[in-house]
Records
---
Amino acid sequence: MYFGTATNQEQWSNKEYTELMLEQFGSMTPANVQKWMYTEPEQGVFNYTAGDEFANYALKNKKVLLCDTLVWHQQYPSWLDEKTWTKKDLLNVIYQHVYNEVKHFKGRCFSWNVVNEALNEDGTWRQSLFYNVTGTDYIETAFLAASAADPRAQLYYNDYNIEYPGPKSAAVENMVKWLRSKHVKIDAVGLESHFIVGQAATEAQQQQQMQSYIDLGVQVVVSELDVRFETLPPTEAGLAQQTVDYQASINACIKVGKQCMGISVWDFDDEYSWIPSSFAGQGDADLWYANFTTTPAYTGVVSALEAGIEKGYKSKEKLRL
Ligand code: 9MR
């Protein structure tokens, strides 16, 4: 099992940040540099400079490299929207993009988030460029291209609000069944786990939902965990609740056993969190405050992980927290 974080190179010039990252985490996910807009800025012109820098740095520091993301309705290049595509041509473009990128990083990525966030909250398909032109064929094409390019990389479907039973998680289950029935390689579901303090899925709900995916023959990961406050500053009671909310995900992952392969937080220090720019006035979602002191949730996460290790659920390897 790994316990890791998403990060960006821009932050690595901060020594305090980088020391913590290298000391505390067992895996690294690039929060941006492997996304389509950066890796294929013009059609057929690939740029892996920043992605390579990230990958090599992570591996040099003996981190598990979790690669992110191949097909997503955000952060894709503008040329995709500037043309009117036939289904055949767009599927070909998707195949070429995924194949080229996965091949480039072959042997370095433990996993790929192949398709991100393809569903609406009610379990219907998101009306993205990809869906509008190809229907659900783009999903199959992306997974096929990824498995052809690197048969050893773990291939994930990754989404949020799929950590508990409901229409969206039911739709993910159907997607897994559909891909598996067609013998398309999909290894795990990534549960992003972007929660709000006091509104997170409970440990029991998360364990139940993880088990539902596992029962379909795939594994699970907690891929982007954070628990944000809707109003700031946090109260003492809020901090205690945030700790419980963080622990719910850790404990659920531990309880389902090896089939939950790992947990990543999406940024670990509030200074660099994505939250304030996406949710004005919200924040303090991470395990360290902006000034690099630990939050109560950090202590709670460490004790939940240690309890899991003692019970023998997890190996200590790669687990730095
Ligand atoms: O952390 C990423 C941030 O730097 C980008 O500006 C943002 C663009 O939407 O994407 C963030 O990462 C997202 C991830 O790729 C998918 N799940 C939600 C994450 C937070 O938005």
---
Amino acid sequence: MAIERTFSIIKPDAVAKNVIGQIVARFEQAGLRVVASRMIQMSREQAGQFYAVHKERPFYNDLCAYMCSGPVVVQVLEGENAIAKNRDIMGATDPKKAAKGTIRADFAESIEANSVHGSDAPDTAKLEIAFFFSGSDLCSRK
Ligand code: IDP
Ligand code: MG
């Protein structure tokens, strides 16, 4: 299986709950390594651009406002099958439907304030990493 990199956000609800470490520990326990990490306060423009794919969805404006409502941690995770592995550890978008033991089942507040973001495919992972990080921000953990 290939070593991949994927983009992850610890969203405002999880940062406010002070569970950054607990969330990162789950990635590490699953064999993923953090190769870049930064806490930021997103602007409305940044959130709007990041979630542009959802522009036509009824929840878009609320989602963008929510993502700017407090600091978030943006990070890049690396490891075998990192993209799908991250999505498995996160759980389903709606925490009520998320499998037991997943981050969203354990920490999320609602379908909107659902604790984490994770890229869903290699092309989006690449775009999302480049949206927040430059090449020199990414560290080698080999
Ligand atoms: P994902 O984060 O599991 O990939 P997406 O469908 O890509 O889910 O949606 C992006 C984000 O938009 C979700 O993580 C969540 O914060 C928000 N969202 C998705 N569906 C809804 C909804 O029906 N109501 C409110 N917010 C939603
Ligand atoms: Mg998505």
